[in-house]
């Protein structure tokens, strides 16, 4: 296993030879191709990914501790299999469609300008999270803690207040319909 500290990885295609297994701390990945890799048992601590493709990676017990993704493609990821210890991820201008955060502890997580179509947030703790200008079309919220979560600029979400915790969550007047869909109410 390799240990990498404060390294920059730029314009690398790891889909052929793979990314060396190990711990990556304070590393920056830019314009890297990592799609469909098996990153199980890897560690990423205080890392940044910019303009990378990580779609369909496997992450059995992968550590993601204070990791930010900017303008990345992360389609079909199963974060529920990631190591839960100090799990912390943030996303800005990312494509996360068909991903899952089932049962993840993500207090104060940040999703900014992201596509989150059909993402599973079931049983997750998203208290005090920020969803800034995110498209949540068909995202699943079931038994999710959304207390103090900010949805004011997001859209296309449907959240059932009867099966989710939404105390002090923030919504805009324009998006209030997303809270009423489960009641079969028609709003014009």
UniProtKB/TrEMBL annotation:
Pfam families to which the protein is assigned, alphabetical: Pentapeptide_4
Protein name: Pentapeptide repeat-containing protein
UniProt source species: Aquirufa beregesia
